[in-house]
Every structure is written in C-alpha cells, then in structure tokens.
Specification:
globular, 282 residues
Length: 282
C-alpha cells in the first residue's frame, strides 16, 4: 500500500474524458432509477436489501484501498459491524444503533492489525460507510420519509450536475488544484445554485412542510455537504495512492466514486430533518 507520501507523489488528475460521457450518463441514470424505485416502494425491505448490498460493495472498495494485504478480512469486519448497526436502527432503536458505530471502529481496528499499514484507516471505513447508511435508513423511516429522501437525491444530483455543467462551460480558477485539479470555483457556485433550485422544486412538488427560505437553506446545506464529500474522497484516494476506488460502475470507477457526495449530504439533510422535527419552523 502506498505510504503517506502518496498524497504528493500522485500524478495530477487528467482532464475529463468526454469520449465516455454517454457511458457515464447511462450508468448514472440506471443507478438513479434504481435508487428512486427502492425509496418510493411502500415496503421497507427493498431499502434494507439495497443498503446491505451497498455496504458490502463499499466495504470491499475501502478495504482494497486501506488494507490491500488482507482486504477480505477487513471488508467482512466493516460489513458485519455496519449492518449490525443498520439492522438495530431498522428495528426502530436508532439511539442504540448510533452508539454501535464507535464500537464498530474499535472492532475493525483490532481486526485490521497486521493486515493494514495503518489500522486506523481501515477502522475509519466503519464510520465513513456506516453513518450514511444509518442516516438514510432513519430519513426514509421519518414522517414524509419518501419525499425527504427524494429531496436528498435531488439536491445531491443537482449539485453534481450543476458543478459539471457550470465548471466545464465557464471554467475559470481552480477550487483546490492540489487535491482535485479539475474542480473550479464556477462549478462550485453552479452546483450550489442547482442544488438550491432542486430543493425548492422538490419541496414544492411534494408539499413538504418547508417555507421557500427553509427549502433553499436545505439545498444550500446539502449542496455544500455534497461538495465536501467529493473533496474528502479525493483526499482519501490521494492518501491511499489510487486514482479510483474501483471499477464497478462503467465510466465512473467504484461505487465510492459515485456516492461520495451523497454520503456527506445524507448526514447533513438527516441532521436538518431532525432539527425540523424538533420544532424548527422556518
């Protein structure tokens, strides 16, 4: 596994490959359709099945990056501990479920000893993957959960599409060239604009009990979280010395590459939803 110096030794990222744009769009559309179908279902079990499958895939990608000498053992540890917390939450015991995540990191760190150069990196995967999985389970179970989860998707996808469209069209100064050379300030601002518009549109369409200002704020917070998640994934890949987390999704790379922004956004939106349920009436 690449050591800490890999953050500075990686070659600069290549410019966007326009030749595979159609493949990227088709892959993203297929995943989006599947996600919407799972969330919109009146049954709860499709979401649990989807989360279980995603957890296993994400844990596999994480272990291949953080513990390449023994990835199967670390992936099994992350998958098992994360799903234990998700199942407890799915049963309605969310407070207990959240307390299980810190314990999961300890278990994964112990299992990763001798298998990873930095066991703490492998252990971080438990909370990095587990927190979003638990948050989206809770968000879907909360009142108006289907609509709020679709709002989350709209904000995240809006931020991604807006960042790509504005960034590739307007270009301009780089956002953080040392970490992610292809991201620009124009893309950052454009992504936030589309995220806010998407949040307001979904809130209005599904009659979510939010004022226009609150819906716009929700989009801004979710959009910022999406950008932060994307940048953190770039930092982590540089730390591990890899270009992509995997090659599962045609045109995109690994599943972590596709859902990095969503993993942060769901924490932000679920947190805002919790505040809203507690009495925020903006």
């Amino acid at each position: 596994m690449a050591g800490p110096t890999s953050m500075t030794s990686l070659q600069p990222a290549k410019r966007f490959d326009w030749s595979n744009l159609r493949l990227r769009v088709l892959s993203a559309a297929a995943l989006a359709a599947l996600a919407i179908l799972v969330v919109w279902s009146d049954w709860r079990w499709p979401l649990l099945v989807a989360i279980a499958a995603a957890t296993a895939l994400l844990a596999n990608e994480w272990s291949l990056m953080s513990a390449p000498r023994s990835p199967l053992k670390v992936a099994a540890a992350i998958t098992g501990t994360v799903l234990a917390a998700v199942f407890v939450g799915f049963a309605g015991h969310y407070r207990i479920a959240w307390t299980l995540l810190p314990a999961a990191t300890v278990v994964c760190a112990l299992i990763a000893r001798g298998s990873a150069e930095r066991p703490e990196d492998a252990a971080f995967g438990a909370v990095y993957i587990g927190a979003p999985c638990l948050a989206v389970t809770w968000l879907r179970d909360a009142p108006q959960g289907q609509h709020w989860t679709l709002l989350l998707f709209a904000v995240t996808w809006g931020a991604d599409i807006g960042a790509f469209a504005f960034g590739s069209t307007l270009r301009g100064p780089k956002l953080w060239p040392r970490i992610s050379p292809n991201k620009t300030w124009s893309g950052f601002v454009g992504g936030l604009i589309i995220a806010v518009a998407a949040s307001v549109a979904v809130a209005f369409w599904f009659h979510i009990r939010l004022s226009v200002g609150a819906a716009a704020l929700m989009g801004l917070v979710g959009g910022l979280a999406t950008m932060a998640g994307d940048l953190l994934e770039s930092v982590l890949k540089r730390r591990f010395g890899v270009k992509d987390s995997g090659d599962l999704i045609p045109g995109h790379g690994g599943l972590l590459d596709r859902v990095d922004g969503l993993m942060f956004a769901v924490i932000a939106v679920a947190g805002a939803r919790l505040i809203h349920l507690a009495g925020w009436s903006a």
